[in-house]
Write a structure and sequence with these properties.
Number of strands: 8
CATH architecture: Alpha-Beta Barrel
Strand order of the largest sheet: 1-2-3-4-5-6-7-8
Number of domains: 1
Distance between the termini: 8 Å
Number of helices: 11
CATH topology: TIM Barrel
CATH superfamily: Aldolase class I
Bound molecules: cytidine-5'-monophosphate
Largest sheet: 8 strands, parallel, barrel
Length: 241
């Protein structure tokens, strides 16, 4: 892959609290194409920020991890289509019907608006949960089996891919083939601090294992120069091939 390809495949997580901080980052990261907006920033600034970022010709990964009845999730997907969202997350534990309805709603609304359907990504088991905690909520299988079960269900429902930890990239690729997007956070360049991330991989390792997109937050956003940090990551990726 060349530089341009990596620009499209490194998603920067805007884990900040205000529109001002978010837009400063978006404007300084000129080559970055996709920005992830999660619950905190969306709760603080709402859809207005999506419109602004979209108008700056940037793509939005809306990471709200939707989990509700099929109708409610479908309606939320339609709204996201109208805001020009590029990719978004849905909890696969909401069930196959919920995901299938969300996919259908995304396709239909995109046709109506004459835009691309957002890529719908499934969240399986939160990485904050371990096997004991799964048992507490009534799931006897271990994390790995549960991730595979939910990933399979997501694929059957027509979801475009999955968000998973770097440790799961290979197994998801092997089980579900190439036509299922793999997006992974938990990425740290060798020169960055791990912070609270535990089972990390470098950008180059993650792409070599088969990730389609990687999500990076603090190593870029908390750097004195986010643009330099982003460029350094891209250069290292180009050189590591
Ligand atoms: O700053 P950092 O690179 O750790 O940010 C990673 C982003 O990915 C954050 O927005 C975080 O919430 C998200 N994420 C994660 N691990 C998961 C799921 C999501 O780090 N298992």
């Amino acid at each position: 892959m060349n530089e341009q390809n990596f620009f499209k495949r490194i998603i920067v997580a805007l884990d900040v609290s205000t529109k001002e901080e978010a837009l400063n980052l978006v404007q300084s990261l000129r080559e970055t194409e996709i920005f992830k907006i999660g619950l905190k920033l969306f709760s603080a600034e709402g859809p207005e920020l999506l419109k602004t970022i979209h108008s700056l010709n940037k793509k939005i990964f809306l990471d709200l991890k939707l989990h509700d009845i099929p109708n409610t999730v479908s309606e939320a997907v339609k709204v996201a289509v109208r805001h020009g969202v590029y990719m978004m997350t849905i909890h696969s534990s909401g069930g196959k019907e919920m995901m299938a309805k969300a996919v259908e709603a995304g396709i239909r609304e995109a046709e109506i608006q004459n835009v691309e359907k957002p890529l719908l990504l499934a969240v399986t088991v939160l990485t904050s949960l371990n096997d004991d905690q799964l048992k507490e909520i009534g799931i006897q299988d271990d994390t790995r089996s549960q991730v595979l079960r939910l990933a399979g269900l997501s694929k059957e429902a027509g979801m475009d891919g999955i968000v998973c930890s770097p440790q799961e990239i290979e197994i998801i690729r092997n089980e579900f083939g190439k036509d299922f997007l793999v997006v992974t956070p938990g990425i740290r360049p060798s020169w960055a601090a791990a912070q609270d991330q535990k089972r990390i991989m470098t950008p180059s390792q993650a792409f070599k294992k088969g990730a389609d997109y990687i999500v990076i937050g603090r190593p870029i956003t908390a750097s004195p120069s986010p643009e330099e940090a982003f460029q350094r990551i891209v250069q290292e990726l180009v050189e590591s091939q």
